[in-house]
Amino acid sequence: MMVPLSYYLLLSGFLFVCGVIGFLIKRNIITIFMSIELMLNGVNLSFVAFAAQWHVLSGQVFVFFVMVVAAAEAAVGLAIIIAVYRTRETLNVDRVNLLKL
Amino acid sequence: MTPNFYLWLIPILPLAGAAINGFFGRRSSKLAITAVALVFSFAAFFMALLTAWGFSSAQAPYFCNLAHWVRSGTFQVDFSFYLDQLSLVMLLVVTGVGFLIHIYSVGYMWDDDGYYRFMAYLNLFMFFMLTLVLAKNYLVMFIGWEGVGLASYLLIGFWFTKDSAASAGKKAFIVNRIGDFGFLIALFLMIKHFGSLDFAKVFSQVTAWPTETAGVGTLTAIGLLLMVGAAGKSAQIPLYVWLPDAMEGPTPVSALIHAATMVTAGVYMVARSSAIFDRAPMAMTVVAIIGTLTALFAATIGIAQTDIKKVLAYSTVSQLGYMFMACGVGAFSAGIFHLMTHAFFKGLLFLAAGSVIHGVGGEQDMRKMGGLRQYMPVTFATMGIATLAIAGIPPLAGFWSKDEILWKAFNANWVYWLVGVLTALITSFYMFRLMYMTFGGEYRGRRAAQDLKHQPLDAHATHDSHGHDAHGHGEPHESPWVMLGPLVALAVLSLVGGLVGIGGRFEHFLAPVFEGTAGAELARQTAGEAASHTTEYLLMGVSVSVSFLGWLLAYVLYSRRPELPARIAHSLGGLYEAVVHKYYIDELYAALFVKPLIDGSTTILWHGVDQGVIDAAVNDSASAANHVSDAVRHMQSGNLRSYAGWVAAGGAAVIAYMVWMGVR
């Protein structure tokens, strides 16, 4: 018995929206970062769901690429976060606003 | 066989002098500058003499083509020079008087900081003036015409740090532009109707046209427009106002440009265009009337002036009026004759006035002079000769030329003659008034006060930026010989210069130029009539006696009874005031033209168009960009989460759109 595709997509959309909302309302950079990962994984879920549904491997291959990029991004992002914390002594994004006019 | 005159060398030589002094004069010694200026102006004079020497063996109109200039279809203008009797007379006057004034300037301007500049300008002026008189067509003449205007502007405003001099230069230039405008339009009309600007081509076509006795036609229009140009350059009513102000320039400039040569360019131009004027009697009448009116008008102003140079300036305007009167009645050669003698005696008068100003330490007010006869005998003698000449006392130069004009004017219309004689009376009066006020009586300057301040030794050493015209010294003294030499030379010319006109020899010499004009016909008619000789002698007697009458009046009023003029002035009241203020013409022009122009420019063009439209358009578009970007820049908050919000909103909008499209 297959789980219908629409369930996966609903879960994927739910995860993505959670990520978006978290990104918008959270002030902690770490949390924002995690929200981004959540959005990526929401999208990943829809990729693999479609791949399983249509028996096309390219969707799954794409997910691997996304994971690689996400890992690289996590490395760079965490480095940036540490650098920001060292200079600003805060992780509140609203306080990291030097570019503001 | 016609000898080669190297005509082109004559103008080029002073130009070379001007270029050398202008470019290298700042670093050269004064002696070198003097040498360059004098050598090149003398070389031009020498070439002119050579030309005159070989002239009799030449075929009368002699051409010298230098280069093509304008080639446009059938319309052609070349750089070419032209020599006939008229050009030759002008050539000799310009180079001769010009060279003498160059010598004089060496003494007069020696202590001035801008000595090299002055000499360069003088040479430049010579170049343009010679171009003007040697031109073979109207366009080359126009180059010279504009060029002398430029040189005049530069030299009037020579002491440009003085505000009055700078504005006098501007006034001269602007008033001349009005005249030049008329001249230009006349040239355009010629191009349109004759397809050429060459003297010979235009005149040969003009002579084929009928005389415009009834009504007004093209030739009358051209003539009147040429007269507008001449009135500007030669300071005739209504454009004479610049000349008295031009006295702000150094005195040699007044002598060279504003008495002897440049201001006579208008007379030369009218005489040169005699063929056109001959076919346009109405234009001739206008020339005669303007000349006559100017002669009388300017002479009356001259009576009440107290500035020695202003008297001479108005006298110049008045004498130029005589020349135009002569041209207007068809006596072109008489006009040119007076032009020549006037160049001698008026150049001399100005140079002598400069010598006086130099001698009394820059004072120009005749009320503060007097008694200079014993201090400066040579100046007195030479200026006396010039005064006798301009007053028309025989046998000096002015008598012959003025008498010639009056006689020709009488033949045309006795009204011209009457006004001319009246002018002669006034001329004689104000000139002897000038002499008595300057040289007669006691010295009225501030000698006692000056003696305390200046030791005799440093009198020559002190000088300020105004050069000789303003350096202060105590005792009036005679000028150095470098200045007196030209005075003496010009005095000799003023003495004997008129003799060339005896028995109509001068007229006969110029006759080929004015061949075929009505004036020439008139001369031929009157020449044979024995009866008219009695009239001529009678008129001569009248004009000589009014000259003596003017002298007598001046003697009585300014030597015998010096208290009388003030009483007369007082009894005349308003009339005298009007004359002193030059009939308020400057004020009238200021109210009629200058003020409306400035007000119109200020309110409409400046505040209205420039500030209201052009500046406003630029400023408003700038501030509009400022406002818009100020409103938009708040998107760039620098807040990470607001950026994210925009991205999310955009994404939501795109999704909403796609969904909506999909549903539809």
DSSP helix count of chain B?
Answer: 27
Runs of chain A with pLDDT <50, length 5+?
A: none
SSE class of chain B = mainly alpha
- Described by its quaternary structure, the protein is heterodimer
Mean pLDDT across every amino acid position of chain B: 86
How does the overall form of chain A come out from the CA principal axes? elongated
- What structural category arises from helix and sheet content of chain A? mainly alpha
- Element-by-element helix/strand order of chain B: HHEEHHHHHHHHHHHHHHHHHHHHHHHHH
How does the SSE layout of this entry go?
The complex is a heterodimer of chains A (101) and B (664).
Chain A: H1 5-25, H2 29-54, H3 58-88
Chain B: H1 9-24, H2 30-55, E1 62-72, E2 75-83, H3 85-109, H4 115-134, H5 138-156, H6 163-194, H7 199-208, H8 218-233, H9 242-245, H10 251-260, H11 265-272, H12 274-278, H13 281-304, H14 308-328, H15 332-359, H16 377-391, H17 397-412, H18 414-439, H19 447-453, H20 481-496, H21 505-510, H22 518-528, H23 531-560, H24 564-572, H25 574-580, H26 585-632, H27 640-663
Antiparallel strand pairs in B: 1-2
Helix pairs in contact in B: 1-2, 1-4, 2-3, 2-4, 3-4, 3-10, 3-15, 3-20, 4-5, 5-6, 5-10, 6-8, 8-11, 8-13, 10-15, 11-15, 13-14, 13-18, 14-15, 14-17, 14-18, 15-16, 15-17, 15-20, 16-18, 16-20, 17-18, 17-23, 18-23
Explain this structure.
The complex is a heterodimer of chains A (101) and B (664). Chain A contains three helices and no strands. Chain A has 101 residues and is mostly helical. Chain A has a single domain (5-88), classed as Helix Hairpins (Orthogonal Bundle). In chain A, helix 1 runs antiparallel to helix 2 and helix 2 (29-54) runs antiparallel to helix 3. Chain A is elongated and about 55 Å long. The termini of chain A are far apart. In chain A, 10% of the residues are buried. Chain B contains 27 helices and two strands. Chain B has helices spanning 9-24, 30-55, 85-109, 115-134, 138-156, 163-194, 199-208, 218-233, 242-245, 251-260, 265-272, 274-278, 281-304, 308-328, 332-359, 377-391, 397-412, 414-439, 447-453, 481-496, 505-510, 518-528, 531-560, 564-572, 574-580, 585-632, 640-663; strands spanning 62-72, 75-83. In chain B, a hairpin with a 2-residue loop joins strand 1 and strand 2 (75-83). The longest helix of chain B is centred in the C-terminal third of the chain and has 48 residues, at 585-632. Chain B is globular. The termini of chain B are far apart. Residues 448-472 of chain B have low confidence and may be disordered. At the A-B interface, helix 1 of A face helix 27 of B.
